[in-house]
Design brief:
The chain has 4 helices and 6 strands. The protein is of the alpha+beta class. The longest helix is centred in the N-terminal third of the chain and has 26 residues.
């Protein structure tokens, strides 16, 4: 085998190993690539308790309750499904009922989402693109004109 043939064989083998490694990483992350799940998607997927994920939707009107200390509970809805959420901590200043929210955490045994981080919109036009698209798909989008959802989206 010539020197050039050995070099090409080595490069080909390295590319194959790299391709397999990338394929394995993408396979392992296939469910975690999504930015968030809507409550209807969580109900349909039958997510196991303890699995970390993000949920997104609107805070249901009349569902916000302040518990002991800094604990709060509320319901996130997308129009087709609802999911009760509990959170202990300081909520964002602009968190309120009827507004978009993304919460990170996991489901407990009772089906309540235990959030350890809550993100709310930062001005009147902002809503994560994924949340806006899911709400439009569900038919519950309430965002004025069509450009409002994309003008304030953080990139």
């Amino acid at each position: 085998m010539t020197r050039r043939a050995r070099r090409l064989t080595l490069i080909g083998a390295a590319l194959c190993v790299f391709g397999v490694a990338v394929g394995l990483v993408l396979f392992a992350l296939r469910d975690n690539i999504v930015f968030f799940y809507s409550p209807a998607e969580i109900e349909a997927r039958h997510v196991a308790p303890g699995v970390r994920l993000r949920i997104g939707g609107l805070v249901e009107q009349g569902s916000f309750k302040r518990d002991q200390g800094r604990s709060v509970s509320f319901v996130v809805t997308d129009g087709k499904g609802s999911l009760p959420v509990t959170y202990t901590g300081i909520l964002p200043d602009l968190f309120r009922e009827g507004q978009g929210v993304v919460a990170e955490g996991s489901l407990d045994q009772t089906g309540t989402f235990r959030a350890d981080n809550v993100l709310a919109k930062h001005d009147e036009r902002y809503m994560p693109r994924e949340v806006a698209d899911a709400l439009k798909k569900q038919g519950v989008w309430q965002g004025g004109n069509s450009t409002a959802s994309t003008q304030g989206v953080a990139r």
